[in-house]
Amino acid sequence: MHHPTSTEMWVFVAETGGVSVLATLLLYLSIRRASVPRLKTVLPWVTRSLWGMWALIVIVTLRDMLADKRSFLTLGGWILYFPLMNASSWIKSRLQFADPPNWNARRMSWLLHIPGPTYVEIKNPSASAAWYVEKLGLRRLAPSEDADRRTIRLTFSVDGEEMRLGPHDPLSLGGTVMLYSRRLKRAREVLRGRGIDIGPIQLDRQGTSYFEFRDLEGNTIEVCTPNDGVLSFTDPL
């Protein structure tokens, strides 16, 4: 019986790993190009396939442990399992947003974040949403059944807090819209480079650094260094 050498084993691992990486890359590109309706029909099948592959791997692995031999079926299962696992999360992420991911949104999510649920009163939500996406790097969330159809929901990341743009709401607290940044100077440079008229970095009475600017409709937006544990999006000076 031939026992593979260490060199043969490394070549074997490299080849199978390459196949898995290639399959993952092809799935990622396909998901980015696919339409939302198509992804909604595909997601249940991806989820079922993932659970099916997991069950198959468990069964074959147990069989191989009893037979004490390597199985190509097990290897094939592992190769397909990880791309399918990634595909499931990618599809869910794509369905969460109205637009595909882009470098601008990823870059700004490293600089800015929304400290808590935020409502901005806007007369023209569609035009203002385009401004928030272009200038601040926010991403539009896909409409949901329980969301107010008159508002547009935005966020910086999948797990981030939401900012909603909508008409006058008597329940809204109003006030200055707050964003947090741990790299205040860099955030100001990037936003200023996008044509936003930004005020200087200042200190409030609590010693917090901040700067201000206005959106398309004149709403004041304040970017400040975060106060840990404070989730309010209005902070009177």
Overall CATH architecture of the largest domain: Roll
> How many E-type strands?
8
The structure class reads alpha/beta
**Shape call:** elongated
How many distinct helices?
A: 6
The CATH H-level homologous superfamily of the largest domain: 2,3-Dihydroxybiphenyl 1,2-Dioxygenase, domain 1
* Order of H and E elements: HHHHEHEEEEHEEE
- Mean pLDDT, as a whole number? 76
N-to-C CA distance: 79 Å
Uncertain regions spanning at least 5 consecutive residues: 229-237
The CATH topology of the largest domain comes to 2,3-Dihydroxybiphenyl 1,2-Dioxygenase, domain 1
Please give the radius of gyration in angstroms: 24 Å
* Count of separate structural domains: 2
CATH class of the largest domain: Alpha Beta
Query: How would you write the strand order of the largest sheet?
Result: 1-4-3-2
Helix content: 40-55%
The biggest sheet, with number of strands, parallel, antiparallel or mixed sense and barrel status, is:
4 strands, mixed
